[in-house]
Amino acid sequence: MKVYFDNAATTAIDLDVFEAMKPYMLEHFGNPSSIHSHGRQVRTAIERSRKKVADLLHAAPAEVFFTSGGTEADNTALRCTVQDKGIKHVISSKIEHHAVLHTVEQLEKDGIKVSYVNLDGHGRVDYDHLESLLKSHPNTLVSLMHANNEIGNLLDLEKVGNMCEEYGAVFHSDTVQSMAHYEHDMSKLKLDFAVGSAHKFHGPKGVGFLYINHKNKIHPFIHGGAQERNMRGGTENVYGIVGLAKAMEIAYSDMANHRKHIERLKLHMIERLKASIDGIAFNGVSDDLDNSLYTVLNVCLPPNDDNDMLLFNLDIAGISASGGSACSSGSSIGSHVLAELNRDQNRGAIRFSFSKYNTLEEVDYAVEKLAELYQPETTSA
Ligand code: PLP
Question: How far is the CA of 41 from the centre of ligand 1 (A)?
Answer without folding.
Answer: 31
